[in-house]
Amino acid sequence: MTEKALRLGTRRSKLAMAQSGQVADAVSQVTGRPVELVEITTYGDVSREQLAQIGGTGVFVAALREAVLRGEVDFAVHSLKDLPTAQPDGLVLAAVPEREDPRDVLVARDALKFTDLAASSPRGVARIGTGAPRRMAQLNAYARAHGLDIETVPIRGNVDTRIGYVRKGELDAVVLAAAGLNRIGRSDEVTDFLSVDTVLPAPGQGALAIECTASDAELIAALGELDDPFTRAAVTAERSLLAALEAGCSAPVGALADLLVDGQTVKEMRLRGVVGTTDGSTLVQLSTTGPVPATHEAALALGRELATEMLAQGAAGLMGERAH
Q1: pLDDT tens digit at each of 324 positions of the chain
Q2: Are 141 and 283 spatial neighbours (Cβ–Cβ below 8 Å)?
Q3: Please, are residues 309 and 288 in contact by the beta-carbon 8 Å criterion?
Q4: Which of 11, 103, 127, 134 is catalytic?
Q5: Of the listed 11, 74, 82, 172, which one is catalytic?
Q6: Is 162 a residue of the active site?
Q7: Do the beta carbons of residue 58 and residue 180 sit within 8 Å?
Q8: Which position among 11, 104, 249, 272 bears the catalytic label?
Q9: Which of 26, 171, 222, 258 sits CB 3.0–4.6 Å from 165 for a disulfide?
Q10: Is 322 a catalytic residue?
């Protein structure tokens, strides 16, 4: 007799379905049980407002979490950067699989790089589309520092919609996450990988979160086999920074924790954070390096310490949205 299928709750977008499908295959291998995808529409999927207007925080995850708590699905897969920093009662983050490329990328007309866009634009200024205040702040700051004429244009929509603005000539380029394009097999459309020295990604970008009920010990144990401890430590530190800044996931905060490796040996973890005004006129950008966190508490502490330094440098006054 075939064991009953596990139900995986996912958003309906092409990207969400692709990444949930990859997790479903991995869970099926670990458990020996079939996994079926259950499509759930979230508020963030149906609202046409800019994310900063609808609050950003949790708009893509609330409906999925409710479905898990109600028992309509057994577990859910989220893009980790969409998760609010507070963990709700009754749910547990059972696994954070190995992270994809965390960088932001450019899809530009004529296969152009970021630094070449403005010089070749018929308008004299490069129009770059992104829905993220974080990206706007850092792109505008870089442009100011290097004498580039750019205009950041707020956009929303799925990958097809966003890239369509470039194909139709309405925008010179759009900024997207490398991980998303990799997961849907469209990385060949990238014209420039933005260095994390230019644009720090969103906290948790490129990582997935697999969530289930805190009472299902058997499922927690099975899902836990997909957990990557280095990725979990990194995103825990990044999200701790975000939480300590009291910023929502649509605030202009970038963070990245990466491992400093010497040969085959992992030496330390470096955490970098940035917050800035969307016009790029003011940025607070700091980093800290320390031992790789061996516990959840140590990873949280790393993020809090850097946030404290950033707040001392005036970070609080640069964030439009504050989480409540």
Answers
A1: 457 899 999 998 888 999 999 999 999 999 999 999 999 986 655 555 544 443 445 667 888 999 999 999 999 999 999 898 888 899 999 999 999 999 999 999 999 999 898 777 767 789 999 989 999 999 999 999 998 999 999 998 889 999 999 999 999 999 999 999 999 999 999 999 999 999 999 999 999 999 999 999 999 999 999 999 999 999 999 999 999 987 665 578 999 999 888 887 888 999 999 999 899 999 999 999 999 999 999 999 999 999 999 998 888 776 654 433
A2: yes
A3: yes
A4: 134
A5: 82
A6: yes
A7: no
A8: 249
A9: 171
A10: no
Q: Which of 11, 99, 103, 162 is catalytic?
A: 162
Instruction: Assign 3-class secondary structure to the chain.
Output: CCCCCEEEEECCCHHHHHHHHHHHHHHHHHHCCCEEEEECCCHHHHCCCCHHHHCCCCCCCHHHHHHHHCCCCCEEEEEHHHCCCCCCCCEEEEECCCCCCCCEEEEEHHHCCHHHHHHHCCCCCEEEECCCHHHHHHHHHHHHHHCCCEEEECCCCCHHHHHHHHHCCCCCEEEEEHHHHHHCCCHHHCCEECCCCCCCCCCCCCCEEEEEECCCHHHHHHHHCCCCHHHHHHHHHHHHHHHHCCCCCCCCEEEEEEEEEECCEEEEEEEEEEEECCCCCCEEEEEEEECCCCCHHHHHHHHHHHHHHHHHCCHHHHCCCCCC
| 4 annotated active-site | no
Confirm whether 82 is a catalytic residue: yes
Active site residue 270: no
What does the radius of gyration of the chain's CA atoms come to, in whole angstroms?
A: 20
**Active site (annotated) includes residue 249:** yes
Q: Is residue 12 among the annotated active site residues? A: no
